[in-house]
Amino acid sequence: MFELHHLTAVEQLDWLRRGEVTPRELVEHYLARIDRLDGALGAFERVDADAALARADEVAAQPRAAALWGLPLADKALVARAGRETTFGSRAFVGHVPEASDELVQVLDTAGAVSLGATMAPEFGFPSYTEPFAGRPARNPYDTALGAGGSSGGAAVAVAAGLLPLAPGSDGGGSIRIPAAATGLVGLKPSRGRVPASSGFGSLAGLVVAGPLARTVADAALLLDALAAPPASPAAWATLAPDRDDDGPFLTAATRGEGRYQLAVTTDSPWASAYEVQLGEEARAALDAALASLDALGHGIEELRMPEEPGYAPAFRAVWQGGAATLPLDDAGLELVEPLTRWLVERGRALDARTLAEALAWLADYERRTIALFAPYDAVLMPALAMTPRPVGWYDAEDGEENFAQQCRYTPYTSFANVAGLPAITLPVAVTDAGLPMGVQLVGRPGGERTLLAIGAQLERRLAWQRRHPPMW
Prior knowledge:
The structure is a single chain. The protein is of the alpha/beta class. It has one domain (4-467): Amidase signature (AS) enzymes (Alpha-Beta Complex). The chain has 16 helices and eleven strands. Helix 10 crosses helix 12 (339-350). It is globular, with a radius of gyration of 21 Å. It starts with 8 loop residues before the first helix and ends in a 10-residue tail after the last helix. The mean pLDDT is 96.
């Protein structure tokens, strides 16, 4: 039987604009699914049903040209919305109600979106899995004994299970791409600076940017168009005539899916000098499936070897810990946070200025070397994850050092793109014998999101992953 969530986000927006469904009717549909299904999934930290219905009625009275007019989505629990409890995934911030919204919230509201609440995230977004002590685990809708990755794990679960048409996430070391790969979604980390409201420039080493999680490449492009809107831009800015031939809506690139490109493939990771990185057979099979399809589509492909980078792990760890050191936690707050967070904060506060400055300088030099290494190629194909989705409870909850090592072994291919500021997209190209989605990652040149979307669209047409859904669909 047909239901509204069976439509893509692009199709839902079209239905809204043509009056086939109202913003309130669409919100009511998703609220009913959340009420029925989310108890077993843990996608949402908070559901704001009354506020969402009031917002839907407000949007219905506004011009329909806004980029996301009437589309339901949700804020990540790490993002502040005025007047709503924002915990940042931590027991130390339970009951915290901000007076002002983050700029990202304002951008999405201006685009006409309707927030249904907040999606689950791990404490302060540091882990690459979503099992916060302050909330519920975000469970993989393909197998609820497994996790959904992180830190945008709740957002990924909501989109994969049809509780939202699409969702914004944030990515400081893979936090969009990891859960997208684990739950069979398209996840796009934009270039540093691409999204003004979450550009990366405000975070240590420029790591954290906002981007979309979606079921299709076109849906991801639709949300990226809204996120990338310049400050004070008109509601329909993405449909305006481009200033240059290579400009224009990201949705256009994703819809056309045109071009033949020069690609490279690698399974090398900068974490390999510090941790034992082993590519699982399911991850290798997904990479091989992507390679076969890209070759059949006529793209040029050659192998790329990335050099050993023994300085990467200590430099990234120092910056990750340095970022944690800035959290507004006093001694009482530190008693409430999780062991991983406490380990990061204490290590970060023990760092001297010279060590942190040297780490930042090393990563800046790594950025330049990586951009130069990737420059001959339109995109570089890599695994998205080294393993299948991990079971809930798999990570060591008490030992911060071991927990960090486990995360590096599971996700050794994502953080370098944040360090280099490069755009990267995960695409759900394969399914394991057990029925679990497995993705691959394409990393582009600076500002190369349109190329990634075009290649993604070609693979999507060939592999039809948009037709695969978890049991509760």
